[in-house]
Description:
Layout lengths: L4 H14 L13 E6 L14 H16 L3 E3 L9 H10 L3 H17 L16 H15 L1 E4 L4 E4 H11 L15 H6 L2 H9 L4 E11 L4 E3 L4 E2 L2 E2 L7 E10 L5 H7 L7 H11 L2 E10 L7 E6 L10 E4 L5 H5 L2 H16 L2 H6 L7 E8 L6 E6 L11 E4 L5 H9 L36 H14 L3 E6 L5 E2 L12 E4 L2 E4 L29 H4 L6 E2 L7 H4 L2 H4 L12 H7 L4 E4 L7 H14 L12 E3 L3 E11 L4 E3 L9 E6 L4 E2 L2 E2 L1 H7 L7 E3 L8 E5 L11 H8 L1 H10 L7 E2 L5 H13 L2 E2 L3 E2 L8 H19 L3 H17 L5 H11 L4 H10 L23 E8 L2 E9 L4 H10 L1 H7 L6 E5 L3 E5 L1
Parallel strand pairs: 1-2, 1-21, 12-14, 21-22, 23-30, 24-28, 33-36
Antiparallel strand pairs: 3-4, 5-6, 5-9, 7-8, 9-17, 10-11, 10-13, 10-16, 12-15, 13-14, 18-19, 18-20, 23-24, 23-25, 23-29, 26-27, 31-32, 33-34, 35-36
This protein binds one RNA strand of 85 nucleotides through helix 10, strand 11, strand 15, helix 14 and strand 30.
Amino acid sequence: MEYNFRNIEQKWQQQWQDTNAYKVSNESAKPKFYVLDMFPYPSGAGLHVGHPLGYIGSDIYSRYKRLKGFNVLHPMGYDSFGLPAEQYAIERGQHPAITTDQNIKTFRSQLDKIGFSYDWSRELRTSDPSYYKWTQWIFLKLFNSWYNRSLHKARDISNLILVFEKEGNGSVGKHGGISIFISEEWMAFNEKQQQEILMNYRLAFSSFGEVNWCEALGTVLANDEVVNGVSERGGFPVIKKKMRQWYLRITEYADRLLEGLEHVEFTESLKEQQRNWIGKSQGSEIVFDIKGVGDNKKLRVYTTRPDTIFGVDFMVIAPEHDLVPQITTPEQQEAINQYLNYVKSRSERERLTEVKQITGCFTGAYALNPFDGKEIPIWIAEYVLAGYGTGAIMAVPCGDQRDFSFANHFDIPITNIIGSYFNGSEANPTKEAVLENSGFLDGLVMKDAMEVAITRLEELGIGKRQVNYRMRDAGFSRQRYWGEPFPIVWKDGIACPLPENELPLELPYVDKYGPGHEGEGPLANITHWVNLPDGGKRETSTMPGYAGSSWYFLRYMDPFNDNEFCSRKASDYWKQVDLYIGGTEHAVGHLLYSRLWTKVLFDLGFIGHDEPYKKLLNQGMIQGSSRFVYRIMGTNEFVSFALKDNYDTHALHVDVNIVDGVILDTEAFKTSKPEYANAEFILEDGKYVCGIEVEKMSKSKFNTVNPDILVEKYGADTFRMYEMFLGPVEMSKPWDTKGIEGVHRFLRKLWRLFFDELKGKVWNTDKATDAELKVLHRTIKKIEEDTEKFSFNTAVSAFMMCVNELGELKCYKKEVLEKLLILLTPYAPHISEELWNLLGNEGRILDATFPGYDGKYLVETSKEYPVSVNGRLRTTIGISLDATQDEVEKIVLANETVQKWLEGKLPKKIIFVKNKMINMVI
RNA sequence: GCGGGUGUGGCGAAAUUGGUAGACGUAUCAGACUUAGGAUCUGACGCCGCGAGGCAUGGGGGUUCGAGUCCCUCCACCCGCACCA
């Protein structure tokens, strides 16, 4: 009887499906555990070996937790709305609903072959109306909420209206550009004015704003979807455009999003990325008078270094700053106009990439230093951003390198306030210097002077402490088709929410789902849908890809609920996701937005926790190892790697599947493409050697490896274990199929502990020896520890060692083997089930209990201790474990080899490290 | 530039956290059994050396009886962020 993995795997996968083996109940006396994979966008390209890496890790952990007695929620679904799905559909010329459905089917069948333990009954799709009904519902909650800054919590908007009616907005503070009003003023506003004011407080709000407009994609993109001035998807140019858009007021949550990072287990680098994105900076705002202009025109700058105020040699304001036209002197008008034209001609991309170039223009105006009255020239320059701080800075050339370069470039005299810390040829951003030329701050160390300066500024009423964030409110609308429609109707310029009983507002079916024109999305073309009988017009943009993924982890808890997005009972039972596995690419997108939604839902009392994920594990990316052939220019002749420099060649990707290691299968190559049919080769040692490069795994690079082929050839269990064996899950590594044989060999060796090809059944019910139990218990301990810390690669090694050792001991004992099978279940579920069954066990192995290890088999009564003299290993000596220090010394000193090294002398010190080694110092 | 991370055999990687470096697996070589082997098993396999032995965890220095592990310093690579005032 041999290991026939194909039959075994098919049989058990069918069985699991037929018996709903992995269905999970919300009612259980067991402790809960929630293991979640980042749900995929079902791309049409199919899986490559990189995709299942995290899924295998999470599957192992879920199965392990289940054996440990937990009620484990381990669901899967699809992020099926969004830009990628729509783009793919457009490329195929098919409706996204159809392509999405097809892709999901392919995806599912590929996943099923690997033997995952998902509870598929809870499957969800973000593009399903029964799901996005609740995405829309949560949007309405965001729309109907505001952030109460004194409670640090979201509150219903009705409660804000009450405050306005009673006392105006004095106590809640200015949000957006709204000025302070009192109760009477509020009552005097008409409906439209009131709604416009409320819009400045809503957590989901609409506003005209500069957005990242991508002409090629015909849509607006979020900041994190724009990389280096081009779209993340497709790499198309992105420009700024003013449009009415929806936003989420994530900036109100900046502090809580930062603070929450202290309580979750994310990697330091991921936390750092989020902190970076939020970009909190503590500083102060200072108001400067402008020479010769009225009191109503003052220059407000933002700085983190108020201590350097006496070192300010010039001011720089953003070219877009409101003051520019107001303060420019007639003499400078011409130059300023020219400069503004230049700035306008610069694309976002150029401004981002050509950062080294120093440009700017003097306005002719001067600000006045409030302490010594010094006249400070005001410049404009594109390096100062309108959107950050006040859009104006005070420049201190001796302390800031950018300011220094600017001063140098335009010959602005530099004031040195830090004495010898400034060497005249570069700025020194130190906080340790003792201030000079700094009026009342003279003699103070800079870091102490900050506090003194800001206090004085506040006393004078010309400055205040100010916290700034780099993060902006998140753009929440897309001029696209394939997304959630907004449950909003515009009436006379007022955004009216749809009543809850009209949800879901279904996405109308259209034939033309391509981009609309002039910024409006495709929905604008469906006039019968847009225009309502009462004169209202539906919002025509749709929600972005991250809408549905911001709360899906909650829906899995209660997926069939028609009355609520998730009952409080269900979310109180499952609580946070205990383990969330996925890549780092969502560090500042999905992971930030879903944290925001969770916090809002928590504030509003719909759920009981305000961080969605307890622990996040980032699986590394599996890269492709590409192979290259070198074609001699203008010929059909290919030259082997080592000889390529003798010719004028260019490198071409060659399909990794026809290369064995680095050796090209030249016959397969000839048949791979018609143009290669007559290819000729210049070989080295009779072989064609390919070049290697590690790149992202992608079809276009011919370096993808399809898991289906590996599963077909070696089985799912081998595939699962090999993916884990490659190395730590969190590390990126190039794929190499070579070693998979070793893992497959291990499973066959395991099989032979139960059945022999010739002899048949070899397992028996004899009593296990101490030596055998020792191997078993050591393995139990190791597997438990490794699985617990996600060290799946070392766990696989431990299995291999265990089977090797049992093989050497000729241990075919059921007592030992069945426990080993339980350990192995999470890693290789099919073979474990089968052997468990063949051992005559009742029930399913997935309901077994993870065995405990007995310490007595791990402890040795005596041990060979290494003995070293002055740290150098000399010999080993067997000593019983309960020997006292004195006894150890006696035994060691009596040893002949040790005596030889001591040369008759007595050691100064004998160090006896229990269970480790003995070292003597002479 | 700033932040995070990594550096160990031909290759993927281990190392109980300061205690015999290279487990486990691949690759390679040798052998056994075989009509055959891409099956199975055994052995060798960091470097130098016939050997005893010596040298080895990116380089250099330090702490320690003892360092891959801790400290200082330099170097290389990967990943984020980047005129953010």
